[in-house]
Amino acid sequence: MFDVSIEDAIPPAFLYSFLALIAAYHIFAPLCSTLKQQSWILTTISSAAMSLSSLPLFFHYVSSRGDLRGIKSTFWTESTGRFFQAYLVADLLMGVIYYRSKLNLLTGWIHHTIYIFIVGYSCRMGWSHLFSLCAVMEVPTFVMAIASLNPRFRSDVVFALSYFATRIVLHICLCVSMVASRHNVTNDSFSPGVIMACGFVKRAKSVKPQPVKQGAVTASPSPSGFTSLRARSWPLPRRRGSLRQAVRAWDRFELRKAAGRFGDVQRRLRASFPVAREQVYAYVGLEWPPTGEPQQTGAVKTESSL
After folding, report:
1. Could you report the per-residue pLDDT of 141-167, keeping only the tens digit for each?
2. 181: left (phi over 0), alpha (psi -120 to 50) or beta
């Protein structure tokens, strides 16, 4: 009744890539000591493959000064898109089976599902070369993924530079190029430019700093963002803790009582030298009336008037 083959329903590039990724996960998973490392295996493979496959298109884009007319969809670019599709499905499947606690709703299920349809839409519309060109933005994802597998490869400077160069600067350039060249590249369609703009807004919202509790360690759960693993303390609780410790030390050493005794001794010393105090005030031309406020004497006024 339905004369549809497997090749027509499932692209061969997707099927082979999916099987290869599943096999690669089962090969490398026993080498990982933590669940977090296992959850980054497929991301490391995918980001490395996508970054390398996009380099020829990226070099052509840079050498042509942002001209997209010389880049065309080919079997290679479509296979690259299908490989990324296979990675998204494989990551969800392996996550459900092996590392469900590391599979986030927003950056896992929602992110992967949306990109599965975006890749399928771009391949169906003949825009796989645009998606393959944008795959160069997976470079910071690879930097983060390889650091998650082995902390020795961690470099905040490399990640920050690659993220700024690809996810911000290049992203803006690609948005402008896709809109400016839409007549020759996308048949006057704004869809690629709109998709790129939406992706840029999503990334801009995802990098807002969040307060971290004292001594807490944070780690980015997805390839779309990266948070330093260093412990960051919120200053307000730290200041409150220091104030509490100072008050406790004040009470522990009975410094409040000592301060009261010191003031009492000081008052007694002042009261024990009334004659000497009066002589000092009289010498400088001041007198100490019962009100307690020194005033100038008449002799001083006469001398000052002279």
Report:
1. 999 999 999 999 999 999 999 999 999
2. alpha
